Amino acid sequence: MAGGKQKKLSLSESGEQPAPTRKMPTRRTAIAAMENFK
Questions:
Q1: What is the rounded CA–CA span in Å between residue 24 and residue 21?
Q2: How far is C-alpha 21 from the chain's CA centre?
Q3: DSSP readout, 16-35?
Q4: Which of 9, 16, 30, 37 could form a disulfide with 23 if both were Cys (CB 3.0 to 4.6 A apart)?
Q5: What is the C-alpha to C-alpha distance for residues 17 and 35, in angstroms, rounded to an integer?
Q6: pTM score, whole prediction
Q7: Residue 3: which of 35, 25, 33 has the closest Cα?
Q8: What is the pLDDT of residue 19?
Q9: What is the mean pLDDT of the segment spanning 2-28?
Q10: Residues with Cβ < 8 Å from 19, sequence gap 6 or more?
Q11: pLDDT score, position 11
């Protein structure tokens, strides 16, 4: 499960670069996932 979440985070980071409008919600999800990892 952790591996899948990490993969999703990588995809989100890659998708939030070309999509500035999607950066807001994507970044929030990435931060939440990072906090969960910690």
A1: 7
A2: 14
A3: HTT-STTHHHHHHHHHHHHH
A4: 16
A5: 21
A6: 0.29
A7: 33
A8: 52
A9: 57
A10: 26
A11: 55
